[in-house]
Batch of 2 targets.
Target 1
Amino acid sequence: MIQLMPILEENSKEPLYIQLYQYIRDEIVSGRIQEGTRLPSVRQLSASLEISRTPVADCYELLLAEGYITSKPRSGFYVIPFQEHLTLTPRTELSFLKNAPQTNVLDFHYDKVDLIHFPYKKWNRLNSSCVTPENLQLLQYGDLQGEPGLRSEIASYLHQLRGVRCTPDQIIVGAGTYHSLGLLFQLLKDEVAIVGTEEAVNVGVQDIFNQFPSISFCPLTLEKDGISIDDLYASRAQAVYVTPSHQFPFGMTLSKEKRMELLQWSKKQDGYIIENDYDGEFRYNNRPLPSLQSLDEHEKVIYLGTFSRVLTPHFRISYLVLPHHLMQHFRQKKHSYNQLSSPILQMTLQLFMESQDFASHIRKMRSVYQRKYEILLHCIHSTFGQGAEIIGQGSGLHLLLKVRNEMSESQLISAARREGVNVYPTSVYWLNAKDAMTSTVLVGFGGLSEEDIQAGFAKLGKAWGIQAR
Ligand SMILES: Cc1ncc(COP(=O)(O)O)c(C=O)c1O
């Protein structure tokens, strides 16, 4: 029998089954475990690694679903001949599912947006109107802070939509939220040693946290109306990271009371609030609460947003709104900062925002997503009834589903995948993996058509063996 010797980290944010899955998959892809090899049984491997059987069984389940191994009755698990593998790129974040070259898969990934309604003709026209003899300077390096015209448009857009009070001078255009957050922590790292953060956080954001070892990121309990303010005081943090409009991934909204308490905390402790409003544009059936930045009287709220949801993630355009004193800090340091967002793309976006088309695109997308969201809710209720609980409703482009059928998270994902449906784990988002919710998957709906949402849930009903009563 072959010996498997992965290095597993109990305290890692990656669940054990994912760590083990990655190790065995890499051994197979690199040829270190050859085709036809019989893997140790679940019992043997769990005994040799001194871990429970569940992560081993979950890992084998995933390797089976991915097509790396096969199971022979009463014999064991065998590595499949190489040409039969699905060729997967090495996994980063959740890309082991995202990058799998499957066809006809119904992909409920949370970061997909609707492209059917993207006004590409208009966009192309504006884009080509940017490169003219008068505008050739756009082909040079751009403004490190972002093109001034675009910053003006962003300032007025944020004021109208989210009540944000700022001048274009306070805005820094970035190449996506992670880029903007990385820049922000560069500016904060000399004055901030502890940052309180929601205890479950987007994996890309966690990666940014990990790039700043001098800052300690302290998880704060998530209650049904947002972070625990008691935890925040106890953490002695000098800054706090929150997604108040639509917590990622849980989807709760930070209540009005907590918003006021958070601002009180900021005033008392002179602490920064980092407000990530990544999908604040999309709320269904209820009015948005004001942004924290719009309520701040002490210049302590740092507001962060992106065009990835409202338009498309392809553009890689995000923005930071900084208090004046941090802006001065940015100006001193700005030459060590690289502006990654193309000036031509920025100008196209500026023209698009100046036209009526941007506002009408947002209105249209609100109703498109609202309809998809209602269909999704209907599908969940009619397919599963009491067999599944929805977590996080009323806004954004995703929700969580806690499934009551005794399957673990990885079993739910693997079973769905065998039916040609991708849903995604939630355990990876917890800063302390042991706190993760069980049997809960993340379901995004932005990129699927109404018909595909319905077809997907018919398949999930079959995959998970639950019928509404
Ligand atoms: C919490 C959070 N912030 C921001 C984003 C968008 O990131 P970006 O602007 O890099 O596309 C996402 C994407 O899913 C997210 O989950």
Target 2
Amino acid sequence: MITTTGLSKVYRSRGRAVTALDGVDLHVREGEVYGVIGQSGAGKSSLIRCINLLERPTAGTVTVDGQDLTALAGRGPRAGRELRQARSRIGMVFQHFNLLSTRTVQDNVELPLEILGSSGKERSRKALALLDLVGLADKAKSYPAQLSGGQKQRVGIARALAGDPKVLLSDEATSALDPETTRSILQLLRDLNRQLGLTVLLITHEMDVVKSVCDSAALMAGGRVVESGTVSELLATPGSELAAALFPVGGEATGDDRTVVDVTFHGEAATQPVVSQLSRTYNIDISILGAAIDTVGGLQIGRMRIELPGRYEDNVVPIGFLREQGLQIDVVDRAAPQPALPKEGAK
Ligand SMILES: Nc1ncnc2c1ncn2[C@@H]1O[C@H](COP(=O)(O)OP(=O)(O)OP(=O)(O)O)[C@@H](O)[C@H]1O
Ligand SMILES: [Mg+2]
């Protein structure tokens, strides 16, 4: 539904060039909720602004719903009209809502319909139906200043839906909201995704957002996509930073000559017998440092962090045994490189 190939963006100001996007290939399938996460400055907002052509890409292509938007940009009045039409099929939700304070809630939702040239009657019918959809039917005549943050974002979402978009882009839509309101807005996006078959691309700082609503995710760093895939693909990728963040287990090695291993199992598989078998077969003492079972992207996942005596070289055979049992095994490297993920609580 959304495909970018070799998408690059270089900002130039006062003789300085900043590469915000450096060859991004992204593929968002129809009907999925896709999360993009990354540290501040990674290029997330640039990506979203280039996808809806608010920002002109320096190189590469953007295709939305089969239409190459980059080919339409800057190609005369007819292509310009097509581009405007294509863009009206892309809804955009912002962190700070961007509502007009002098207009009522209903008039804010009607704004894109005015631009599209709908009649007054049609505008009002549509706006009221959308406000009903986002649970704000009774606020049509209120002004933005009379609403809570969560309600303002609902208005923002209703407005984004006015042009019957197939795609909704959201840049940090929940970052200005408290955790409870965040949950309700995410639930709304999930419901709209299901009910309307809307494809949602959302940008976020928060791993929890990805965890609760996304089918797929990408991690950005330095203007590039460094990891991407469906949540289950990511969880099955050894060493995936996103997988570790989506599903963390705690526990530190108790000494230098120890090997720490994360054992991941999906669904029903049980690790308990495997661990005791391992212990008996190789006559080693195994400590469990941490364990958790959780639902990530609708999948039930279990993970256990265990510690084996001896260094990695001493444990090649037992680790091989675990792999043979069909379990996913990640050896936890204590000299791990600098993470590309935002730190907890970072803004
Ligand atoms: N209009 C602009 N002119 C010049 N440089 C820009 C512009 N917009 C963004 N940049 C630079 O491009 C890089 C990527 O910025 P971008 O806003 O895409 O990051 P981000 O991942 O959205 O960050 P945040 O999480 O803080 O919102 C940064 O180095 C930023 O300073
Ligand atoms: Mg940003």
